[in-house]
Amino acid sequence: MKLQNLVILGTGGTIAGQAGNALDNIGYTAAQVGIEQLLAAIPALHRSGPVMAEQVSQIDSKDMSFAVWTRLAERVRHFLARDDVQGIVITHGTDTLEETAYFLQAVCQPHKPVVLTCAMRPATALAPDGPQNVLDAAVVARHEGARGVVVVCAGTIHSALDVQKVHTYQLDAFGSGDAGPIGYVEEGKLRLVRNWPLAQVPYAQDAIKNVANWPQVEIIMNYAGASAALVQALVAQGVRGLVVAATGNGTLHHALQDGLLQAQAAGVRVVRSTRCVNGRVLPLSDDAIQDSQGLSPVKARVALMLELMARDARGSA
Ligand code: SIN
Q1: How far is the CA of 283 from the centre of ligand 1 (A)?
Q2: Which pairs with CB-CB distance under 8 Å and at least 24 residues apart come from 46-50?
Q3: Is the CB of 10 under 6 A from ligand 1?
Q4: Contact 104, 87 (CB under 8 A)
Q5: Which residue's CA lies nearest to atom 1 of ligand 1?
Q6: Are residues 124 and 17 both part of a single domain?
Q7: Domain that holds residue 161
């Protein structure tokens, strides 16, 4: 039987970073090495079948933009539709990787595996982690039972829904919170510790195809002494949605809560998430502000933008 292609899409990040000194793991410039050059340094990648590569962007993921997301989703859809493609690996910076993973799961709802991977050390490091991460990601993308968007870093497989960057420096920089990882890649083999997540995102969002302007949705945080000042400033400039990273189980300083309720009454969509790393906001029946249904603040923001886009698309249809 003819082996199917693995597609590798490069977007930049530390995995493509360069430093002036091989011992420097932090003073580098991200997104310098092209995807073809990165893969040329990993000959073992080709052992499991043919590989095709494409550079979709070359950015530090702190600068991730809606334009890059739109293009990435288009290339993912394009390659997934091909019968000769088994799965996709995307090399990405770690800083906004969890947002891209959630976004791609929401807008592509892939039935084949789409595996985001990354590195915490630049390509020029004495011991870079990128090549092993790419090899592990390829193993997952070629795994029979794999589907949907997942993240592979430091030998651990995380679902797009749960994954979160939890460390600023260590190679194992991601966690899956209460849910835990899907499994591990060990010496080229998968060891799953839970069922492969199905339909991680509860709605298929196709709206970005029709939208020229992404709705403005911002994140604000609750903290000691919080006020309504930021909410009022954002409402005055026409914000469409607000996600609040609340304290604990979704609690809000009364001044911030008043501002959010006024914004909501004025037509701004408001969603309540938590700044806690683990757990989720457990709603009460009389909550005035909807909870994020377990999504972290950054993912709740993506979901809210997509919801507003879908609403706009329906309105203009
Ligand atoms: C980035 O997110 O592009 C830079 C940081 C990293 O990849 O670790």
Answers
A1: 34
A2: 48/3, 48/6, 48/138, 48/139, 48/142, 49/3, 49/4, 49/5, 49/6, 49/86, 49/142, 50/3, 50/4, 50/5, 50/6
A3: no
A4: no
A5: 93
A6: yes
A7: 5-192
95: in domain:
yes
* Residue 1 confidence (pLDDT) above 80: no
Residue 95 alpha carbon to ligand 1 centre in Å: 5
Which helix or strand (DSSP H or E) is residue 158 part of? strand 156-159
- Atom of ligand 1 lying closest to residue 31 CA: 3
Ligand 1 contact, 99 CB (< 6 A): no
pTM: 0.97
Q: Would you call 70 exposed, middle or buried from its count of C-beta atoms within 10 A (0-12, 13-18, 19+)? A: middle
Answer yes or no: do 120 and 241 share one domain: no
Mutate to test the pocket of ligand 1, among 26, 62, 72, 171 (most ligand atoms within 8 A of CB): 62
- Assess whether 159 and 250 both reside in one domain: no
**279 shares its domain with 145:** no
* Nearest residue by C-alpha to atom 7 in ligand 1: 93
Going by pLDDT thresholds of 50, 70 and 90, the confidence category of residue 152 is very high
Tokens found for residue 108:
């592509």
- The proportion of the chain whose per-residue pLDDT surpasses 70, expressed as a percent, equals 95
Query: Catalytic positions, please?
Result: 14
